[in-house]
Design brief:
With about 375 residues, the protein is mainly alpha-helical. Helix content is about 45%, strand content about 5%. The chain has 12 helices and 7 strands. The chain has helices spanning about 15-25, 40-55, 60-75, 80-95, 105-110, 115, 125-135, 145-155, 175-190, 200-215, 225-230, 235-260, and strands spanning about 75, 165, 170, 220, 270, 330, 365. The strands form 3 sheets. A 3-stranded antiparallel beta sheet has the order 3-2-4. The protein has a two-stranded antiparallel ribbon with strand order 1-6. Strands 5-7 form a two-stranded antiparallel ribbon. The chain is globular and about 60 Å long.
């Protein structure tokens, strides 16, 4: 977004933050009416995998997923086109957020293992056509704040000497700040995996990520007055969003512990922080059934679905090449018919496009 490195530490930090908050009020409306809404998690994960492969900044990754959400919300897109749309969103976001030398090149994208596993080959013409179509869709305006644009500004004052850890003074501000930042990054990734977080303002999601980090790390007060003044959000504003994040964290901890017990030789010098004695602050969560990807080309699904998906489907409908890229069809206002498909292979919170990028609670060396 053409922001200087570590802008939250500069003299203009307050002005930049207010500009982001003002722009946030004018973000496009997300209706959740995409006929391919059940595929959203898969393509968000694909963007996460590719962005991590090229070490793109979090703002580029979050902007790419947000662009994808808006495009899917407006157009009825085939599965084959969605692969090109998702990667085009990532390229546009990286061009907007990253330095030019860090933007992925076409040959680098085609050389990825996940691309060969999907039997997908991108061409320069197809990418340019899709990028132009996306820019016209957004009226050449990619100045769209996400939660990742706010998080560092909030983290700059998250931990101070007045905080308590488990009722005791914080032993190391530097180490505690590192833990909070790691957990905030984790909760940011969690917020990418479910479109329900699009119903909250990005600044609120970022504040909820910070608040959830403080809850998990047992820092008190949970939401100090300095953060309330900075964000202009009280705990009552954040509680609903933070509860969703903490539920996801509880499920991820259970899954991580289950996998740890299944391993014959756990990795040394790594453990979750914090561990013993922590009582969950959220109510019990009833797992929802896995959402499954169809074996045949995608059929429309209800656009009003906003349920949390603990499983991500793995498509079996990859098609060779990416040559046909006609105009995207706008989503109709009528309610589409429900999806009717046989189950495919589900799995828990993580990424599986012939590689593993697991969204799991941070681990730290003691």
């Amino acid at each position: 977004m053409e922001l200087e490195v570590e802008w939250w530490k500069g003299q203009l930090a307050g002005d930049i933050y207010q500009a982001l908050r003002y722009k946030e009020l004018k973000l496009p409306t997300y209706k959740g009416q995409s006929p391919q809404l059940t595929l959203r998690r898969y393509f968000a994960d694909l963007i996460a995998i590719v962005s991590n492969r090229f070490r793109l900044c979090p703002t580029a990754r979050h902007l790419a997923v947000y662009l994808l959400d808006l495009v899917m919300d407006r157009y009825d897109i085939s599965v084959q086109q969605l692969h090109v749309v998702a990667l085009s969103c990532l390229l546009l976001a990286s061009k907007f957020e990253e330095r030019e030398d860090r933007v992925p090149k076409l040959d680098m994208l085609n050389s990825l293992d996940c691309m060969s596993s999907m039997n997908l080959v991108l061409t320069k013409q197809s990418l340019l056509h899709m990028e132009l179509l996306l820019l016209e869709t957004f009226q050449w305006n990619l100045y769209l704040p996400t939660a990742a644009h706010f998080i560092e500004y909030y983290l700059s004052i998250t931990v101070q000497e007045s905080d308590l850890h488990g009722g005791w003074p914080v032993a190391s501000l530097e180490k505690t700040s590192l833990y909070v930042a790691k957990y905030a990054d984790y909760f940011l990734e969690v917020s990418l995996q479910d479109q329900v977080f699009l119903s909250y303002a990005p600044s609120l999601v970022a504040a909820a990520c910070v608040a959830s980090s403080r809850v998990v790390l047992r820092l008190s007060p949970t939401w100090p007055s300095r953060l309330q003044r900075l964000t202009v959000y009280s705990w009552d504003h954040l509680s609903a969003c933070a509860e969703r994040l903490l539920i996801a964290h509880d499920n991820d901890v259970k899954e991580a512990n289950r996998q740890k017990h299944q391993q014959p030789s756990p990795q040394p010098s790594q453990t979750l922080f914090p561990v013993q004695g922590q009582v969950s602050t959220v109510p019990h969560y009833l797992p929802r059934p896995a959402q499954h990807f169809p074996q045949q080309p995608c059929q429309p699904v209800p656009g009003s679905t906003h349920s949390s998906a603990p499983f991500m489907p793995h498509p079996n409908t990859q098609q060779s090449g990416a040559q046909s890229h006609g105009h995207l069809q706008p989503v109709g206002h009528a309610h589409p018919a429900p999806l009717d498909a046989k189950p495919s292979v589900p799995f828990n919170r993580g990424y599986q496009v012939n590689t593993h990028y697991t969204c799991a609670p941070p681990c730290f060396d003691r």
